[in-house]
Amino acid sequence: MSGKPTTGPFEKTKGWLDWYNGPSKPGFKLPPGAVDAHCHVFGPGAQFPYAPERKYTPCDAGKDQLFALRDHLGFARNVIVQATCHGADNSALVDACLASNGKARGVATVRRSVSDEELQRLHAAGVRGVRFNFVKRLVDFTPKDELMEIAGRIAKLGWHVVIYFEAVDLPELWDFFTALPTTVVVDHMGRPDVSKPVDGPEFALFLKFMREHKNVWSKVSCPERLSVTGPRALQGEPGLESGAYKDVVPFARRIVEEFPDRVLWGTDWPHPNLKDHMPDDGLLVDFIPQIARTAELQRKLLVENPMRLYWAD
Ligand SMILES: O=C(O)c1cc(C(=O)O)oc(=O)c1
């Protein structure tokens, strides 16, 4: 990996943790054609300014650094998800997709005012979905009728909707989510509270959501974000052997084993808003065989599912 995080003309949010630029080589050998199906680009801010309405200002994390990480870890492709710090200006995302030689597809953020021409331009760049965010610390509220209107328009392009929310908010969002007319992909397992039992009512509701709605998929990503007690995956520390993020394993494993054809995995590089540590992305890859325990489950999670959703054409 080359390149160090820079900050450009913007001042980072106080306490911001930069991505770790010395990731280890994973011990786990990814299957050929593996896709990192959730990652972001931030700026660089000098070229792609952060949005005025953003809730945080990150360090830069540009496409060259993302592609270097992809190659270092052994992924073949990326799905780049529009980060909230760029609002609905998808320029950095589009630039990265276009520069990737077909190795990156995107999930954009759009407003009701987006034109059909702009949607076509995004499609041509490789965008295949839009992201609706309900995490209050990240975005201002968007009315549900606006989101439903957008969903109806992008459905015609064959795109899907990615949703990000906290587990406690699922009951209130249920009717909206289950009325969406597209495939629906949940970010980071709907952020379960992993200090609660995997068999408890909160996670049961999430499993019911997926069980009763066959159009719902889940990213089994972000153990570093969800873990409460598990040891961290830090360079120089025994990651896999000591069971890094082990409190997250039962949740992710449950989803992978019940819904093997509707799961995706991603690094979440450059890991926005982590508060107490920055993971080694190589060790995050080493987390995968704990949650997808057979070669077949790994192939579905890392190759077949993301290819079906993002590279169907
Ligand atoms: O939990 C987060 O802070 C977070 C933020 C963003 C974003 O700002 O887009 O994306 C993620 O996947 C996760």
Automatic annotation (TrEMBL):
Reaction(s) this enzyme catalyzes, per UniProt: 2-oxo-2H-pyran-4,6-dicarboxylate + H2O = (1E)-4-oxobut-1-ene-1,2,4-tricarboxylate + H(+)
Gene3D superfamilies xrefs: Metal-dependent hydrolases
Organism superkingdom: Bacteria
Entry annotated with the keyword Hydrolase: yes
Family from the record: Belongs to the metallo-dependent hydrolases superfamily. PDC hydrolase family.
Domain Amidohydrolase-related: 35-310
EC number: 3.1.1.57
Example GO BP: 3,4-dihydroxybenzoate catabolic process
Record organism: Hylemonella gracilis ATCC 19624
Keyword list, A-Z: Aromatic hydrocarbons catabolism, Hydrolase
Keyword Flavoprotein: no
GO molecular function, one term: 2-pyrone-4,6-dicarboxylate lactonase activity
UniProt-listed InterPro entries: Amidohydro-rel (IPR006680), Aro_Compnd_Degr_Hydrolases (IPR052358), GLI/LigI (IPR047874), Metal_Hydrolase (IPR032466)
A family per Pfam: Amidohydro_2
Catalytic class of the enzyme: hydrolase
Name of the protein this chain belongs to: 2-pyrone-4,6-dicarboxylate lactonase
